[in-house]
TrEMBL record:
This is Peptidase A1 domain-containing protein. It holds the Pfam family SapB_2. It comes from Eucalyptus grandis. Disulfide bonds join 119-125, 284-288. Keywords: Aspartyl protease, Disulfide bond, Glycoprotein, Hydrolase, Protease, Signal, Zymogen. Residues 318-358, 382-468 form the Saposin B-type domain. One of its GO terms (molecular function) is aspartic-type endopeptidase activity. One of its GO terms (biological process) is lipid metabolic process. The active site is at 106, 293. The keyword Disulfide bond applies. PROSITE patterns: ASP_PROTEASE, PEPTIDASE_A1, SAP_B. Residues 1-22 form the signal peptide.
Length: 510
């Protein structure tokens, strides 16, 4: 689409669909806590992001906690940033002395990678920190090439070996990838440098041993678990924590409910059903599987299932959103002009959405809309809003010929808007209706884990320019009904990844 609004949406899509879920299957005792710093979501702050640390103001709450709730005095806390309120990442060091990198701690993949100083042909690398092997006294060259695929792009590079520092813990001889080429759209706008995978070694590309395995094997953690708390309070300066080797009792209420990992590779569990407003959708009659993925911002599932849920909660696709916006803002004027006898293309000129061009017929405009594109050399009047206006005027005109009443005609037009294709895969919501939207619940085992509309809707921008986006996005994996439960789910539920017992636990986040 040619409108500036659509260009913003397309740009927004490049980071909204960012998913680090990878499909390639090819110290002394204590806890390591990784704190997550948060900032509000707005477009202007994307390029102005800077790494900052929280001060000593972060204390335990006294009321309601016993001595066992207190944080271990030996625990290392690393405060991290939240990328646009949808991605959580923080600092590690690689080499001796440590070279600093910001990485996503990703339970949906198993490799560690950062950009290499030899990444010369990818413009992305010039916007991020790059590893300089010659500056590390503990570096060992491996040199085996590899490529890692993610849901939103890929990187390629070579394997290397060096020490990795997280807080005061140093994991020795850790395999990692020096990325020499990065997918352009996937990583260009990212504020983080690389990815640290926390999945199982079964899916590690090149058979590399994940950092978490070495952390356990070298005795850096007290228990073979790590836990995740993501703070969804936009007013807080602390975005959350990752605790390696234990739990932080302050950040959940009640006991965790644990469910077995059904398939090694990902942190994958079985989902029995999905409810909307307390009613079964029947989407998991033959069982669904879900992957807990801290590297994915949203709740991703099969296209048909996501479309059904988004319809039930009142969300519409980008094309439907534009179409309904034209109906809402210009519908009555279009109606008045049509009943006065004007043609659809003339009506849209009069309401100010089209510039008159008698050389192009309406059917050509419609074809371009459904193909989500414009022809080379098209004139300035061929905007999306113009096309939608003419389409709506045509629909109304056809219904007027059948002598339908106005309310029935506009109901029909709304239904047609809803059925339009959704090529970008994102669904939009009227921000004023969020409080009245239904809860969506994932039934895991015999327990319900509901998400309120405030928890599954993402707000983009501030004030009158705010756009509300549904957290349910389509992702189809052949022959599998697989869901990805990303940051929106883990923001509502404190999550324990029990490596020793191959279980995942959830408790209500606090």
């Amino acid at each position: 689409m040619a409108t500036s609004k659509s260009l913003i949406i397309i740009a927004l899509y490049s980071w909204l669909c960012s998913s680090s879920y990878s499909f390639e299957a090819n110290s002394s005792e204590g806890l390591l806590r990784i704190g997550l710093k948060k900032r509000t979501l707005d477009f202007d702050s994307v390029n102005a992001a800077r790494i900052s640390r929280a001060g000593d103001h972060y204390y335990l709450r006294k009321k309601g906690y016993t001595r066992r709730n207190q944080m271990d005095s030996k625990a290392e806390i690393i405060y991290l940033k939240n990328y646009l309120d949808t991605q959580y990442y923080g600092e590690i060091g690689i080499g001796t002395p440590p070279q600093k990198f910001m990485v996503v701690f990703d339970t949906g993949s198993s490799n560690l990678w950062v950009p290499s100083s030899k990444c010369l042909l990818s413009i992305n690398c010039y916007f991020h920190s790059r590893f300089k092997a010659r500056l590390s006294s503990t570096y060992t060259k491996i040199g085996i090439p590899c490529k890692i695929h993610y849901g939103s792009g890929s990187i390629s590079g070579v394997f290397s070996l060096d020490n990795v520092k997280a807080g005061d813990i140093v994991v020795k001889d850790q395999e990692f990838v020096e990325a020499r080429k990065e997918g352009f759209l996937a990583f260009l706008a990212a504020q983080f440098d690389g990815v640290l995978g926390l999945g199982f070694e079964d899916i590690a590309v090149g058979g590399a041993t994940p950092l978490w395995y070495n952390m356990v094997g070298q005795g850096h953690v007290a228990q073979q678990i790590f836990s995740v708390w993501l703070n969804r309070d936009p007013t807080s300066t602390v975005g959350g924590e990752i605790v390696f080797g234990g739990l932080d009792w302050r950040h959940f209420r009640g006991e965790h409910s644990y469910f077995p990992v059904t398939q090694l590779g990902y942190w994958q569990i079985e989902v029995a059903d999905i409810h909307v407003a307390g009613n079964s959708t029947g989407l998991c009659d033959h069982d669904c599987e879900a992957i807990l993925d801290t590297g994915t911002s949203f709740l991703a599932g099969p296209t048909r299932a996501v479309a059904q849920i988004n319809h039930a909660i009142g969300a519409v696709g980008i094309v439907s959103f534009e179409c309904q916006t034209v109906v809402s803002n210009y519908g009555n004027r279009i109606w008045e002009y049509l009943i006065s006898g004007l043609r659809p293309e003339t009506v849209c000129v009069d309401v100010g959405l089209c510039l008159y061009n008698g050389s192009q017929d309406f059917s050509t405009q419609m074809d371009k809309t459904f193909n989500n594109g414009t022809e080379k050399g098209s004139s300035a009047n061929e905007t999306a809003l113009c096309t939608f206006c003419e389409m709506i005027a045509f629909w109304i005109q056809m219904q007027l010929k059948q002598q339908k009443a106005k309310d029935r005609i506009f109901k029909y037009v709304d239904e047609l808007c809803e059925k339009l294709p959704n090529p970008l895969g994102k669904y939009f919501i009227d921000c004023d209706k969020i409080d009245n939207m239904p809860h969506v619940s994932f039934i895991i085992g015999n327990k319900s884990f509901p998400l309120s509309p405030q928890q599954y809707v993402v707000r983009v921008g501030q004030g009158c320019s705010t756009i509300c986006v549904s957290g349910f996005v389509p992702l189809d994996i052949p022959e599998r009904r697989l869901w990805i439960l990303g940051d929106l789910f883990m923001g509502a539920y404190h999550t324990v990844f029990d490596f020793g017992n191959l279980k995942v636990g959830f408790a209500k986040a606090a």
